[in-house]
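Try it yourself: sequence plus guanosine-5'-diphosphate, in.
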Amino acid sequence: MGNLVAIVGRPNVGKSTLFNRLTKTRHAIVSGEAGTTRDRQYGKCEWCNKEFSVVDTGGWVVNSDDVFEEEIRRQVKIALDECDVILFLVDVKTGVTDLDEAVADILRRSKVPVILVANKTDTNELRYDAADFYRLGLGEPMCISSASGSGTGDLLDKVVASFTKELAEAVEDNIPRIAVVGRPNAGKSSIINAFLDDNRNVVTDIAGTTRDSIYTKYEKFGFNFYLVDTAGIRKKNKVNEDLEYYSVMRSIRAIENADVCVLMIDATRGIEGQDINIFQIVQKNQKGLVVVVNKWDLVEDKSNEAIRYFERTIRERFAPFTDFNIIFASAVTKQRIFKVLEEVQRIYNVRTTKVSTRQLNEVMLPIIEATPPPSLKGKYIKIKYCMQIPETRVPSFVFYANLREGVVQKVFGKSDS
Ligand code: GDP
Ligand code: GDP
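Structure, out:
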């Protein structure tokens, strides 16, 4: 089970800059103007062979100029609910502000490890100024400069040392783990109910796990599967539901622990920013995906043109990743609920496919021979053989050739090599 680290703090202290440094994302835009950074909520970081996820809570604030204390408080509280380590960022150049104190008040009471980070410590002299932050009552501030990267190695050491997470729960292999994700009101609880109804007796608790187990095993229509974090979805938190990022934060853990994600889209509302945020988390984790356009019973025009329009719009918004199926369903009338589970199972089977080296070469080598790679600087490139890489998240293949530099490694899924 992955650890989740949240970066909190008031606007302009450098959260986004630190996020970029930790996740090495290039696409995020950082600017001196508050609120111009958007695409930067969720990323992966690896340090000392430990991979963990990082969220920048500031990434969800559309217009940071209007961020009120109350908004920041809620952000911090949600981060405390969902994350394993909090990085509380302050700005050594401005010193302690009222907003910093308000955030520190909440964090001091938390059980989640909090690391106080004095950012913008670009010079050694500024280290003296950082001492001022002791009065926030959160221990020694770690001095870093997100802009230059100085101090971030020590910070990462401390982050990794703060992880207390237990090992993954024991779940049976060969059974897909499904996360149902989507915006508030998309119909997540309803589809889970549709999966469960009059079947409560088949719900089995996993032996030896506690009540907060995030996996629950089900059987429906002859499919065996685990639902991830069902309790979390059914335990509604009305207070926070209106926050744009709330359902995104909630989804992270479920997605990370799943094999296949069912992304619920409300047919009556279409695709919104949050859907795309959730989709990106699925995609960054290389999970299987089924898109369910839910509440299909409420849609009047069910013509083929309407269906094609829906499909086209969804794929356009999720481009360049368009390789998923879309199912038009209704959690309430249970129309095509079976199809959803069938598709989950199909994707799971595809993801766990193992192709023998012999079979692979028998199929691939003739194809390569018929359509050989272009020669490089007059040198002929010959693919000798190929094989599947064992133990990857999605089927991945390696091709061996006579000229290393002449071959663009074509790996289906992410290239780890
Ligand atoms: P956020 O609103 O907390 O996400 O803050 P940003 O990451 O957008 O940074 C706000 C401003 O502070 C930008 O102009 C950054 O270039 C600047 N900044 C961030 N980190 C540092 C740092 O370590 N040193 C200095 N001097 N400036 C920084
Ligand atoms: P969640 O917030 O994603 O868990 O959404 P809920 O499952 O609580 O559904 C939100 C609202 O939409 C509820 O009033 C549901 O009854 C309704 N709803 C969910 N799925 C459907 C559907 O397929 N058709 C119709 N007509 N209503 C639905």
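One thing you can check immediately is this: The first strand starts at residue 3 and ends at 8.
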